[in-house]
């Protein structure tokens, strides 16, 4: 064997050094690359007053969020609101003032009474600016094409909820699914640990034939319980806390949350056999709830705080097209929308809208704080609402069947939520029954509550 | 030249292997600089700070990230603080956003830069119980922007309230979730309590 020369040794050493540098660089690049959207230079938060009472003063408040400043001070922002009487016509520009307190949004404008007292309500959008970077953002994203719409609660049915007893919950009429944790057919996937918390199936839906379909994202499948049997279909999903909806015809919609590698939310449309049809990034950064609308899947999104369709008649809509179709309420097959606004600690405003006219409205007040609205859907000439009452250490769901005179039926439902699910995916209305997704330390549950209305 | 190429190829393979990479984990980019004391501390500056940590990943026991809009090590083993990956965990993100002190008896008001590697002394359960001089328990129905909801396993800050009664929560939720803003219903969940920081100046 020939002894290596000084040139070979030097070449080898140089190769090792260059190789280590190259290897580290390559792995760093591969770890950091991918289809990653950037955090926007400016972001906004705003809660629109979609339902206002006569004579109620209206102040629009916005939080403007920018890149952190090196001096630790907040964003130097500004903005304008473009507002008009009613739901069409020219917008009028109002400048936002900068307040001392940012707890409900530092930038604000009080609307003139001639606007807030309009019988047709008012509509508006805002353009916000970071004066340091020059970045701007319009909210809602549809701007003048799909502005925020606010409607007057002129003739609302007033309902005062009593103080809940916590403990008088109704038992379900039937437990339609009881699936032990696991990965076999008939079981449901559980992920997590005692230190990090547990996650179970994140959402579910009910088919027209009454079969229960559960998104078992932990096991990468959907699982379907019918009277006859249990079947599974493999699906490619991220495993995050996704929402789920069945469309007529069997198409499945999975609304994915942001994740470590896809930090923007995505809606996946899947065929009945689980194969992908398309996936579409949402217009906005955050979602609250997915629903199967009359023309396709629609999503309640933030910061727009509107329902934005993500597809129409089977075809995905791009982000701009979603934003341009934003509406304040969830659309239903009868052509109407249902508007929901939780106000303060214990008030809930609801309205059914035909076009841009309020058909029926309810204003519910509660001495006990109200939490999120899980469901608000028409059932014949009534409206079914599921919301939560809570104290700092107790809570109950309250199911209400509302008609023009007030509460036609109501009952409390015990939250059985040992494992986490998607935020507003705990209830589904199918026919005249309410279904609840729950979980215990041992199993996943789907319970049915039949809605019996006596008047 | 031949020796160079052979050595280069072997070194690239070795440097790309997990063992060599572990030596160069994300924390190698972090620092231990002193924080900056601030007289002001506003909720919207806290929104700016937490919002910028979005997309930067999650690391159990961590508190260090850059602003390149990606998690440099997205597949670390969950619950392993020795992974030394990018991002804060839930309580680390809250600690830095709330400008707290590593001494639990101090109010703090310390502006920690993103690459400053600090988690702080509090678990989510500590926050839930209002432990530490800067922290206190609040009624959940009163929690506003950049107050928080904490359980024994997690804490998330209220980015803003929302129309349907839930909240937009900015949080470092888990390794697979990363750090981001999610819609959550912690406010009405009995396993979560309301917690806030004293001393917001606006």
Task: Describe what is shown at a glance.
The complex is a heterodimer of chains A (455) and B (202). By secondary structure, chain A is mainly β.
Give the SSE map.
The complex is a heterodimer of chains A (455) and B (202).
Chain A: H1 6-32, E1 42-45, E2 51-52, E3 59-66, E4 77-85, E5 92-95, E6 97-98, E7 107-110, H2 113-116, E8 122-130, E9 136-139, E10 148-152, E11 157-161, E12 174-180, E13 191-193, E14 197-199, E15 203-206, E16 212-216, E17 221-225, E18 230-234, E19 243-246, E20 252-256, E21 266-270, E22 276-281, E23 286-293, E24 296-302, E25 306-309, E26 311-312, E27 315-316, H3 319-324, E28 330-331, E29 336-343, E30 347-354, E31 357-366, E32 370-379, E33 382-390, E34 395-403, E35 406-413, E36 427-430, E37 433-439, E38 443-450
Parallel strand pairs in A: 2-10, 11-31
Antiparallel strand pairs in A: 1-3, 3-7, 4-5, 4-8, 6-7, 8-9, 8-10, 12-38, 13-14, 15-16, 16-17, 17-18, 19-20, 20-21, 21-22, 23-24, 24-25, 26-27, 28-29, 29-30, 30-31, 32-33, 33-34, 34-35, 36-37, 37-38
Chain B: H1 2-16, H2 18-23, E1 36-37, H3 43-52, E2 63-64, E3 87-88, H4 90-97, E4 110-111, H5 124-128, E5 135-138, E6 148-150, E7 155-161, E8 167-174, E9 178-184, E10 193-197
Antiparallel strand pairs in B: 1-4, 2-3, 5-10, 6-7, 6-10, 7-8, 8-9
